[in-house]
Amino acid sequence: MTQVPLRPAVAHLPAYVPGARVPVGAAAFKLSSNENPFPPLASVVAAICDAAQDVNRYPDMYATELTEAIAADLGVDPAQVVTGTGSVAVLNHVLNAVVNAKDEVVYPWRSFEAYPIAVALAHAEGVPVPVRADGRLDLPAMAAAVTPRTRAVLVCTPNNPTGPAVRADELRHLLEQVPGNVLVVLDEAYVEFVRDPDVPDALAVLAKHPNVVVLRTFSKAYGLAGLRVGFAVARPRLAAGIRAASTPFGVSHVGQMAALASLRAKDELLERVETVVQERARMLAGLRVQGWTVPDSEANFVWLPLGERAAAFAQEATRAGVLVRPFAGDGVRVSVGEPEATAVLLEVTESFRR
Ligand SMILES: *Cc1c(COP(=O)(O)O)cnc(C)c1O
Fold it and tell me: In a mutational test of the pocket of ligand 1, which residue from 82, 187, 215 has the highest number of ligand atoms less than 8 Å from its CB?
């Protein structure tokens, strides 16, 4: 039988494995997808309900009000901001805007599992560069991996799933070495959780380097993972290209209004982020007291470098009532959530060691 062939790149895509979900009716803590453990604020739910009245209409295609609010919040020109259905989608649009078939895209690995998929779908060739044993990105090795065929370098900071953030001097050296016609994507999905003072100010970096794009999201710190709103910040010319490559009417009206309401409630939401940051410190300290060697985390998750025992650990955690995210043969990522969830997790890590 004659069949429509899939693109070889698509037939061989690694599957994006979503974090395990809590079965209906079961009681478990979901620490598998780096979500915000807090339910939406009442003001945000009210904005969502109001917006629901208008869903017979297409949304504002350019998310004008939200784009202006994001730009004002960041102190950039609205022409520099491009919204999309989560920053994963925005990354696809960024790559589609700049990458030609067979170009190379350098990215860290192990890192965000959406990267190899986005690179392959953009017809590019991925050049994964191993993350260091301590969970930090190896930026000198990434700079060294850049060739005349490289069109983009993806920098995940903090790195999902290992946790550390890139330091300002490391990024400065990378940008000095990478040619100006190679895009450097700073994926800052967890920037609000960073407390390390030595990290770069991405917007200042962008002001200095026209080849930089910054990706941010409302999914994590702002707790809107379910509504799919993220954005890129770039120079206006690149931003226009990314916008042109974007799905028309991507961000729903409900998503736009929820993100706007969240920006208005920024202070309140950042207090919640601080709670998670403190819980992260408790989780890391608890693990280290038990003798675990875990990387510092600047995000809302911690990394257990369990190697071959990753899957077995995840099963054990599930039995105890916490869902975590195993990366087979590599390690386990545990999102930081409720204090009660930390307590259960630490019981599992304690007994697993023995
Ligand atoms: C969660 C995450 C994103 C953002 O995902 P959304 O599509 O905005 O929900 C982007 N990059 C990394 C590294 C992430 O972990």
Answer: 187
- Residue numbers of the domain that contains 250: 42-264
* DSSP code for 209: -
How is residue 213 written in tokens? 């794009």
In the numeric block, which tokens belong to residue 49?
């309900």
Q: What CA–CA distance (Å, rounded) separates 216 from 55?
A: 26
Q: Write down the pLDDT at residue 320.
A: 96
Mutational pocket test of ligand 1: of 92, 220, 335, the residue with most ligand atoms within 8 Å of the beta carbon:
220
User: How many CB atoms neighbour CB 19 within 10 A?
Assistant: 16
Is 52 in the same domain as 97? yes
Query: H or E element: which one contains 320?
Result: helix 310-320
Structure confidence at residue 30 (pLDDT): 97
- For the chain, which residues score pLDDT lower than 50? none
Nearest CA to ligand 1 atom 14: 189
Q: b/e string for 184-208 if b means 16 or more Cβ within 10 A?
A: bbbbbbbbbbbeeeebbebbebbee
What is the value of pTM for the model shown?
0.96
180 domain residue, yes or no: yes
With CA atoms as reference, report the closest residue to 100 among 125, 123, 127, 126.
123
Amino acid found at 223: G
What residues does 213 pair with on adjacent strands? 185
